[in-house]
């Protein structure tokens, strides 16, 4: 994994200290790695330390080969610096990570958690909006929704509860989800300011990242706002619009 | 503080490695310290490390004088090892710590959390039953209940929800609460097996501990089961029965 | 790896909380894992937390397959609880771990460190006697000594410096070393009280452990005191006496 | 202490995330606090986490009053992120912290450590050049040197060993030392590029900091290069030149 996580010019480890595009330049509030191996469920390795100083992360990336993995560095936004609040989040064979946030999250957290079925509520280990959005999406998928439709439903419910609570701030959701076989990349927000998400397709490999990992800017394309991109093993990436409550975002608040 | 936390024969630091009476001999899943100084709100220092190896704890205890402080070493029971799950818990000027547990807590956690008012729900930083019981007691006190009555109400509600969920295991509650002026020590359980709590009154000092801190066994008296002991500054300790839903525990399940 | 580290009846994770045979029952001062994969140098994963509460350790063991790995739980003996002081230690393609200690280590540490060549002194990351003994053995091997002879030389020098410093306590050395291909297990001490080391040979696997990992006591044989056992891939274990300065230990102090 | 550590416009906690003047903008590799209370020896509180996310630091600063304390945030330069490598360093009643570094430190570390007497070598808990310089200064003071002369001697020896090792890089030493009564602030370097150090004298308080803590730029004066500033309780700060081997630095390399 270190060919992608540690080695590139603008690697994730480097981004922990100096991200170029993110809202926050320093992402020192922990990191995480989820990777798929021989089992259906992914491995998960998360720690509180800044990624730039963690020898375990470097050693693990140097040893493990994986056909599919997620890596993340965190800049906390008002929730605690704990392992359970670090991305990626894992539930069964699913892994998920998220950039963005629910504006004034504390005011709607409780009502959003109330939408979780008991089994998924029990899986909640941390306190972030990101983990909550992940579990809500899974809850909708368990009822039969496709990932894009599930995200659309969750965004709609989130915005509805935010409006009910008088929150004028936006919900922004740039995220990746996988079941270990297929990857879905989402980029949406009610105000049109979704954090960036870049795609690079190489022979034999597809890379999705919040910033290009190298200086070949032309090789990276920005994933469109309000869309879901599906990457199946051995097939190219397919991007479709994301439909939220019958409308495309941004909506007038 | 180290005259009590680090120095005695059976100090808390020593108990982290070899507790004599507790259900668990090793209490290595973090520790915590809450102390009152010049401000109304207490200081709080908690960490994940075993207390026996933490230099910060030793140094802090060696420097700080406090007329009233709580110290705790934790053995986790099915909840994560995080700072936010370490005792004591602090909310405003209140501090609290707890030995015991809610049997099959996961099955009633959600229903118990639903009893919290929004403001106190927002104060919930961790995932333990202990923190939840603390906030429920505070919620009842905010409605005007005295601490003993508040604990009685919370025990009654907890047992009621446990029975509704078909839980045969017990709820056990040996705990200390303070507002910075008065200390209330509780010892109750629905099956009569409350973890121990000892009291020692010396001229100018009252000590409450889960095990005697020294070998003067006669100087320590066990606090009675199903009681609340109130210690006011400069006054002796007063013990009264704890009334739970009109009855004293143990009750027939 | 979890078939050996986490799953057995008396697994290493369990031993972190309740070791049966060791000098210390609780081994909560960190843990470590070194494993060989596709590269010549091993992966290394060490953390300060007690092994029993570390989700990363469990997840990693659940994912990684390795034909050769070392795992260790630590009970600190007078040196700091840091990652760099956790076993195994890795240097180049070598990995090493150790039970035992140099009596009154502080009094001879400096003189022992002076025996290290500059390159290996630069590899010293922590402060333990164990890492120092590892590097001294490597230093001797770089001069052409076989592992058994290198250990013999290091034990002799250590005892000599201890005697010069007036130290009556013993040096005890139960240790395992590997270069990724061959494993050498050592058990020696100047007073005959070497910590235990057990061997189990199964078809296709050789296990060396400080305590039997399961209840099949007969399947495990204690490695003899003052010996070195060599395990080559695909070949059985061969035990030979360890010669220290022309004599076998124990020696009269 | 939080009036100085947490509250100001450009507080140390803020500098951990965005320092203005330092060589490194992010100082997220741990922090430390040494403070004097009722005892002769200071309290010491250090942790690995970035200062910006540590609740313990905030709580401690909110409770403790101290007439004299040191606080530091660290950006590691090639030595491990451990508590023992975080500033301040404490030895007996002395506390010390340092900005700057010994160029190509690894090449002279061993020779510099050889200058330490045994008792101070035993006090060495970490691996940084900063702690080593501190102990070397104390060693010289134990032989009767005044702090300024001790620093001069240590700088001279350091530069000498660097030259012998063929190191062209500089040694830079901006540091503060105290015995709990008097504070000495040093600023020197062989190339004239000493990290900055600012002094503010207010009625009843003297503040020394690597950056002004507030926007009153005129109230802060830069301590001169190649000088030692002595602050005695109740007396003003006195600055004198620092003499290194009969010369003032910068010297021709």
TrEMBL record, chains A, B, C, D:
List where this protein forms a coiled coil: none
One molecular function GO term is: hydrolase activity
Which SUPFAM superfamilies does the UniProt record give?
N-terminal nucleophile aminohydrolases (Ntn hydrolases) (SSF56235)
Alphabetical keyword list: Glutamine amidotransferase, Hydrolase
Tell me which domain of life the UniProt entry assigns to the organism this sequence originates from. Answer: Bacteria
Which EC number applies?
Answer: 3.5.1.118
Q: What class of enzyme is it?
A: hydrolase
This chain's protein is named Glutamine amidotransferase
From which source organism is this entry?
Answer: Pseudochelatococcus lubricantis
Its taxonomic placement starts with: Bacteria, Pseudomonadati, Pseudomonadota, Alphaproteobacteria, Hyphomicrobiales
């Amino acid at each position: 994994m270190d060919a992608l996580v540690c080695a590139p010019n603008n690697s994730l480890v480097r981004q922990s200290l100096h991200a170029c595009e993110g809202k926050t330049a320093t992402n020192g509030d922990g990191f995480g790695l989820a990777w798929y191996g021989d089992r259906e469920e992914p491995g998960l390795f998360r720690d509180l330390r800044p990624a730039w100083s963690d020898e375990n992360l470097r050693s693990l990336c140097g040893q493990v080969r994986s056909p599919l993995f997620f890596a993340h560095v965190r800049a906390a936004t008002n929730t605690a610096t704990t392992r359970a609040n670090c991305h990626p989040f894992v539930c069964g064979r699913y892994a998920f990570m998220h950039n963005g946030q629910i504006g004034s999250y504390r005011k709607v957290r409780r009502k959003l958690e109330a939408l979780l079925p008991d089994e998924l509520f029990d899986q909640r280990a941390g306190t972030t909006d990101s983990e909550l959005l992940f579990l809500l999406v899974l809850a909708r998928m368990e009822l039969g929704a496709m990932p894009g439709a599930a995200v659309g439903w969750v965004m709609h419910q989130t915005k509805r509860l935010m409006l009910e609570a008088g929150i004028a701030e936006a919900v922004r959701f740039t995220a990746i989800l996988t079941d270990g076989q297929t990857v879905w990349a989402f980029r949406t927000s009610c105000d049109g300011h979704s954090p960036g998400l870049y795609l690079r397709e190489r022979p034999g490999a597809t890379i999705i990242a919040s910033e290009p990992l190298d200086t070949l800017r032309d090789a990276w394309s920005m994933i469109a706002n309000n869309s879901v991109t599906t990457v199946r093993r051995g097939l190219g990436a397919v991007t479709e619009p994301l439909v939220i409550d019958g409308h495309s975002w941004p909506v007038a608040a």
